[in-house]
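Renewal narrative, Specific Aim 1. Our central claim is that a sequence can be written position by position from structural information alone. The example that follows is taken directly from our test logs and has not been curated for this report. It begins with the structure tokens describing the chain, in the order in which they were read.
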């Protein structure tokens, strides 16, 4: 069975690399013997989708193109699948090794380990792990618990539009969003998706923990240009509240809200189990404060207090 699958994958890769135009599923099925032997269209479709994803996991860049008749075709351009020789010194190899360790507790653990194995097979030097002696006290990790992370990561990589249900912080029910995903960013322990919201005709940032249900991929090309990485990261930070333009004064229950305390410019005890904190105020702070529920009271500015009260009322209405 393993030999048969390897042969099927090799034949599919050769077909996609050898064509000058996108090949439809129908054409690929007629060109590969193993697909011809598939009993039904459903069994062929399942086999083809698995094989396509397996080739992508192995590093083959497969493009999805829609022709004028609306039929989807596939090809793997040779210039997109040819890399120059990779040469790394010991310090660069150590940096890659550390990066792979960061992902060991996340969904990218397998991909990170596989990438290191391929680089070592190509001659990457074995680097001494400077962090090995400190693993019992400090270990770099990026936790990923959201089910939406993996399908969105693949959609960002393959430039595929997606549809998902999203519940805003002040909304009682989720709404469907059609998004062209750009990139995923981790900020203060939470993952965010930056992309183009087709329904609103503007760029938006979505917190993965607020995505409900399954992320569904769609065919077709992006309709909006994808900005460079720096611009996307700035957008994520701004929408997540990183970019502060002024200060806010809040009351925080003693022993609570340590993420807020870490951002405080100043703090003082008020007594009766409450502290007063001055924290940077930027876009998204109202949504963040709502998450702390009755442990936070906004003192000023008035517009921030009003936004938080409005969000809390919306949540209470359920």
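The sequence written for that structure reads:
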């Amino acid at each position: 069975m393993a030999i048969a699958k390897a042969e099927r994958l090799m034949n599919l890769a050769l077909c996609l690399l050898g064509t000058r135009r996108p090949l439809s599923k129908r054409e690929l099925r007629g060109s590969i013997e193993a697909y011809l032997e598939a009993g039904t269209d459903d069994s062929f479709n399942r086999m083809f989708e698995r094989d396509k994803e397996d080739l992508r996991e192995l590093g083959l860049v497969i493009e999805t193109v829609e022709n004028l008749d609306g039929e989807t075709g596939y090809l793997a351009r040779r210039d997109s699948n040819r890399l120059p020789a990779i040469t790394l010194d010991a310090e660069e190899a150590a940096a890659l090794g550390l990066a792979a360790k960061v992902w060991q507790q996340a969904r990218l653990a397998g991909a990170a380990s596989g990438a290191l194995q391929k680089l070592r097979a190509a001659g990457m030097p074995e680097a001494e792990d400077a962090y090995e002696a400190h693993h019992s006290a400090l270990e770099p990790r990026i936790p990923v618990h959201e089910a939406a992370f993996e399908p969105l990561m693949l959609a960002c990589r393959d430039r595929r539009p997606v549809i998902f249900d999203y519940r805003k912080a002040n909304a009682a029910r989720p709404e469907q969003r059609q998004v062209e995903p750009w990139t995923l960013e981790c900020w203060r322990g939470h993952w965010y998706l930056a992309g183009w919201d087709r329904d609103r005709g503007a760029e938006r940032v979505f917190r993965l923990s607020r995505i409900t249900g399954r992320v569904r991929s769609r065919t077709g090309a992006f309709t909006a240009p994808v900005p460079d990485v720096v611009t996307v990261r700035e957008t994520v930070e701004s929408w997540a509240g990183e970019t502060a333009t002024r200060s806010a004064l809040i009351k925080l229950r003693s022993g609570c809200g340590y993420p807020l305390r870490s951002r405080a410019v100043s703090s003082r005890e008020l007594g009766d189990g409450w502290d007063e904190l001055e924290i940077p105020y930027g876009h998204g702070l109202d949504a963040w404060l709502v998450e702390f529920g009755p442990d936070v009271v906004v003192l000023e500015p008035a517009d921030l207090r009003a936004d938080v009260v409005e969000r809390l009322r919306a949540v209470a209405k359920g």
